[in-house]
Amino acid sequence: MSVPEIATVVGSGTMGPGIAATLVRAGAEVRVYDISAEALARAEQTFAFASGVLDQVGGPKVDGGSATFTTDIGEALAGSRFVIEAVPEKIELKESVLKQIERLVGDDVIIATNTSGIPISDMAPSLERPGRFIGMHWSNPPHLIPMIEVIPGDATEQSTVDELVDIVNSFGYHPVLEKEIAGFVENRVLYAILRECVALLDEGIVTPEALDTCVKWGIGYKLSVIGPTRLLDMAGVDIYAAVSGYLNKQLDASTDTPQVIKDKIAAGELGFKSSKGMYEYGPGEVDAKRKDITAGLVAALKTLSSITPV
Ligand SMILES: NC(=O)C1=CN([C@@H]2O[C@H](COP(=O)(O)OP(=O)(O)OC[C@H]3O[C@@H](n4cnc5c(N)ncnc54)[C@H](O)[C@@H]3O)[C@@H](O)[C@H]2O)C=CC1
Ligand SMILES: Cc1ncc(C(=O)O)c(C(=O)O)c1O
User: Fold this and answer.
1) For residue 171, what pLDDT is reported?
2) Is the CB–ligand 1 distance for residue 14 below 6 Å?
3) How far is the CA of 15 from the centre of ligand 1 (A)?
4) Beta-strand runs (E) in 167-250
5) Which pLDDT does position 1 carry in this prediction?
6) Atom of ligand 2 nearest to the CA of 117
7) ipTM higher than 0.95?
8) Residues of the chain with pLDDT under 50
């Protein structure tokens, strides 16, 4: 199966435009919908940027893809064969948007959610046809991270799972089929790392710059080639037993969002979007960092795609 001829992206903030660019490159006629005209205007620009990045990467391209941007949900969903919801991570909002979508599409249309980790079965009861509802978790930036978690809920039909796996394969991404669990797999791992990182910073064990160097070169570089399961074999399962025996009980085990992060939110220090977060950014610096991150990911994607999978 190829990517559906007509697809709709609902919610066009950080994730929507890159998702749309990926689907368009795979040949789909994509309608991008958002309730906010301002968000859509920004999305047109980020979509164009993401499409340019995909040209730079130079992967397979299917002719005939196109994108239109609209604040009219009926227009966005008319004739659509596949819908990906990417509105903010609030369950009540998602449920109401999902219901709205379901009323406007055919019975056999797949409705996927890009939730970062809300269990699919928690949202499914809001739908009349939960069999066609499924988790499709893209990673940020979605046009450059070629892995998508596919998460069926209790009521998701097997045909929905199979079709989504085919769709993900059709644009050359790696589908990762998982059993349902809060946070799914990627964010459980990422948030275990981030919890420890924030604790180490808060305790003054390491500076932000030194932490980033340590994790990027000591862990990220290595894991981008070998993966954690293989890493256990390379290090030795006996080493893991020896170290985890004394270390696991010392690791941060807090269950709430750290106070230092709550303080930053209260101060409006949200990161790139407010020019101050964990770091502070001078004029033009956020754009420069975004460009460097894109260039780095493009180079790494090309290299990692060309090496033997381990
Ligand atoms: N930002 C990230 O790194 C990642 C986010 N996600 C998930 O993807 C989803 C979207 O995240 P972001 O793009 O970061 O959010 P965002 O806040 O940047 O964008 C959400 C967009 O949805 C629009 N919206 C709000 N209510 C709407 C409605 N009723 N109908 C249509 N559009 C509506 C907003 O105007 C906004 O443009 C969330 O569930 C998030 O957890 C998943 C992977 C990575
Ligand atoms: C900090 C953070 N949180 C969530 C996600 C996600 O995948 O949902 C990401 C991401 O990189 O995609 C993230 O960086």
Assistant:
1) 93
2) yes
3) 7
4) 174-177
5) 61
6) 8
7) yes
8) none
